[in-house]
Amino acid sequence: MRFCLLILLLGSLFVISDGRVAAQDTASQPPAMVVQPGDTWAALALRFSVDAAELQQLNSHMNRRREPTIGRAITLPPDANSRPGLLIRSGDGGLVQTAAANRLSPWTMAALNGLASPYRPSFHRPLYLPADDLIRDLPPGMTSLELSMMPAVTGQALGLRGTTRTEQPTITAQLDGLPIAFATTGNRFAGVVGTGAFYTGGEPELVMRVGDNPAWSQPWAFDEREWEYQELTLTGEAAQIDQQARDEERARLRELWTKITPAPLWDAAFQTPIADVLQVTANYGARRSYNGGPYLSYHEGVDFSAYGGTPVFAPAAGTVVLAEPLYVRGGAVIIDHGLGIYSGYYHLSAVHATAGQTVRPGDLLGEVGTTGLSTGNHLHWDLLSNGIWVDAAAWQAQDLACWLLAGLGAECSPAAATE
Ligand SMILES: [Zn+2]
């Protein structure tokens, strides 16, 4: 018996459950956990049977007027023990109705919630109901919610996926006011949002709403990212850039990039669009100063230097929406991959795709060149999410393409081995 107890004790010390971080030294280190979506003050209070005010006091680094920040550590009371259950919002019906719906006596329900009587109004107070679930406070109508990165990083595409109570839900959501594009299949959903390399991060609010249910929000932590700094000297033709032509090109492309095809068109991980690369000469997000000026812009894609004529391939399935020479970008091909994801291939010496064409991974798009405002043979590859440039290398490294498809219950071929 004593042996069994010891195993139990060891298990409780070292097994990480419910997102809790095992404390190395339980005597001096209070237990902590990383906040997940749905870990609101109310949910944590019910899950650990503590007072929300006590939790907030223990975590004075968090703004108590907001919910706990997703992706940040939160300290729990020393004796915190997780219990399963369900959190019921008053919007889902009052205590008496909730008790009836769950075949409990109103008095049992009141006792479970520390109330003297079920007939005293307890406005806005979430109710505890025994169940086998992890107590979470998700957007009303949602039964699960996952985020691709916690904490998030600026300059990347971020994924959201989960399930809802009803089929084909309408999900509206914004991150710091940026709209999130969603696809749904049955009761599953997957969405993606991008923040640019100049995005300041911090702890922006993620606001979500399922159908006509009340809106829900929780802050989502962003980590700082180190960026490269590049000083460029432009001479000759490149220095005499026609600002108006540049702005017109950008405005025209912006119109293309912000059209959202509501379902993903890809069915596999994104491949690198070029095989014979000499070197990567510029990464996404590198801050740029021109002719000694301030760092007012950043590199919107990845530059692969390669010999002129090197073939450029489609990294994933989609529809070609532009295939023509442009002033700044030179020979250009842009692919719509669905769900607000677009990829672009620029400075091509030859374009072998046509607008409206459906492409499969590996289809030839064109050849490397140095057309447009370019100083040597290279492929500039960019990736956009909802009209915002994001890091294509990070999109590939995290295999966000397959992560999103898995959220919709769809098949996705993993990335083919390269080199
Ligand atoms: Zn470039």
UniProtKB/TrEMBL annotation:
<dbReference type="InterPro" id="IPR011055">
    <property type="entry name" value="Dup_hybrid_motif"/>
</dbReference>
<dbReference type="InterPro" id="IPR036779">
    <property type="entry name" value="LysM_dom_sf"/>
</dbReference>
<dbReference type="GO" id="GO:0004222">
    <property type="term" value="F:metalloendopeptidase activity"/>
</dbReference>
<feature type="domain" description="LysM">
    <location>
        <begin position="31"/>
        <end position="76"/>
    </location>
</feature>
<dbReference type="Pfam" id="PF01551">
    <property type="entry name" value="Peptidase_M23"/>
</dbReference>
<dbReference type="Pfam" id="PF01476">
    <property type="entry name" value="LysM"/>
</dbReference>
<keyword id="KW-0732">Signal</keyword>
<protein>
    <submittedName>
        <fullName>Peptidase M23 family protein</fullName>
    </submittedName>
</protein>
<dbReference type="InterPro" id="IPR050570">
    <property type="entry name" value="Cell_wall_metabolism_enzyme"/>
</dbReference>
<feature type="signal peptide">
    <location>
        <begin position="1"/>
        <end position="23"/>
    </location>
</feature>
<dbReference type="InterPro" id="IPR016047">
    <property type="entry name" value="M23ase_b-sheet_dom"/>
</dbReference>
<dbReference type="InterPro" id="IPR018392">
    <property type="entry name" value="LysM"/>
</dbReference>
